[in-house]
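Hi Prof. W.,

I finally got the SLAM family member 9-like prediction working! I wasn't sure whether to trim anything, so I left the full sequence exactly as given:
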Amino acid sequence: MSSMKDLLLIVLLHCLTSGRGIESNPIDRYGLDGESFHLDVEEHNNLTFKRFVWRMNSNIIMEYNLKTQDVDYYKNEEKLEFDKKTFSLLIKNLANTDSGLYKAETVNDDGVVIHVVTYKLRVQAPVSKPVITNTSDSEGECNSTLKCTVENGTEHSIAWLGNGINNTITHRRSSELCLDNITCKNWPLTCYAENKVSNSSETVEALQCERPSNSALQSNLWLILSVGIIGIITPIIIIIRIFWIKHRNKKKEEYLVKTTDASVGETNQSITTEYDVVRPERMNRPTDLPPEITTIYATVRKTSDKNIC
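And this is what came out:
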């Protein structure tokens, strides 16, 4: 029993002298494969130290000297970049091998190491676009099945989404959905794939599913448009017809008046001409000429007006 107490005392003294203390749980972080990622240090303005150290899985990957304000050590200078103002670490061109525990520590003038923050970084590949296929099996448990396949992606999940449908499967390359119990109201259906760093989806419309509501709406729309057009055109045609009939009747009346006037004029002229023809004095004129015609010549002397009077 005493040996156990001594062991605990030794461990406690070691923690106090080293300055590390009990570390908090690591903070989960997810990075996209091929991209860069920042590991930040909060409250960096309150830190006092001689050296600043970043570790990956307990191995030093960067060491900064505050006095010289230079980075004394880089494990991979092309891969890592240290910010001297915020003490954050930039990891470039992430790969799966960069996944691990990253710890930030400070070392004071007495050589005491103080824990600052710990991150658990997971590098994930982006999910690829889902591919949906339809298969039929009349002898199987399901007559018709939709299969959604996601070829690429790290630790991704696949979900079927629709009206009243939410079916999620994690960490599998494909997911199947039986259509036997799917009705028209559930369409369209979407296969949604995601992980911590990316997402993608594909939607399929109804397969062999009539949508009477849409058809009825379309028919009603055409009916409304047709009735509206007829309702507008019909009064216009009626008005034009009325004006045309009135105009035609008016022209007909004018034509009849002119014709009557012309007939009356022709009748008067005929009466006048007939009257001229049947005058009695002309009818009493002898029709036979005298047997002998004697020509008499006379001289007429011009006299003045006074003599005439």
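The chain is about 30% helix and 30% strand. Does that look reasonable to you?

Thanks,
D.
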